[in-house]
Amino acid sequence: MTRKTRTDAADNRRRILSVARASFASEGLDLPMREIARRVGLGIATVHRHFPSRADLVTAALTEHVAACRADMRAALDDPDPWHALSGVVRRFAEHRLRDRGLNEALFGSHPAAVAFAADRREQARALRRLVDRARAAGVLRDDIGVDDVRICLAAIASYRLTTRPAAGLHRLVDLLLTGLTADHQLPTDHQLPADQRFPAGTVRTPPVRP
């Protein structure tokens, strides 16, 4: 193989991954490989030479993002504030819903193309349970709330239909869901939250729900 051929092959691989990441993020993991090839401007055979199966392409496209999520979850487990840790995970999940549909399908769904991330899904599930157990022990969750209830919240976020104002609507949904999880205390106001958890200007916050 000549140097030019190797360079062309490496360039094709980068282009395929770039298009696949963007496409999976916006449309999910079910997008046909033939469509990705069309968007890249390559033949399907070329795409298959680099990535023989959809699972190979999904794995290559999402590996870095999944590693970042793994680091986020470790940081949440190390967070000394049980409520901040758990609510931060829910809020970041919502942000991924806005920006990267494929990542949520890989880590919190059971998409067959994300088989390489099965261990990550199991680890995320165990970590979420630890966060919920810790928040309950600290008294910041309602007594009747368990990890399955938090998973229902994540499912609601994952299924939220992104409309003309997706960020405002989704953030409001997250606020409502978190309020429903809390024990008898007031959620912090925006200025009390870390910058990465504040809501966009104009988003209406909801009063706490008393169990």
Describe this structure in words.
The chain is elongated. Residues 201-211 have low confidence and may be disordered. It is mostly helical. It has helices spanning 3-27, 33-40, 44-50, 54-78, 82-99, 101-108, 118-137, 147-158, 166-181. The protein has 9 helices and no strands. The chain is 66% helix and 0% strand.
Helix-strand blueprint:
Blueprint: H1 3-27, H2 33-40, H3 44-50, H4 54-78, H5 82-99, H6 101-108, H7 118-137, H8 147-158, H9 166-181
Helix pairs in contact: 1-2, 1-4, 4-5, 4-7, 5-7, 5-8, 5-9, 8-9
Supply the key terms.
mainly alpha, 211 residues, elongated
Uncertain runs = 201-211
Structural class: mainly alpha
The first-to-last residue Cα distance is: 68 Å
Q: Helicity, in percent?
A: 55-70%
Radius of gyration (CA) equals 20 Å
What fraction of residues sit in β-strands? under 5%
Number of strands: 0
Mean pLDDT: 82
Listing every helix as H and every strand as E from the N terminus to the C terminus, the arrangement reads: HHHHHHHHH
How do you describe this structure in short?
The protein has 211 residues and is mostly helical.
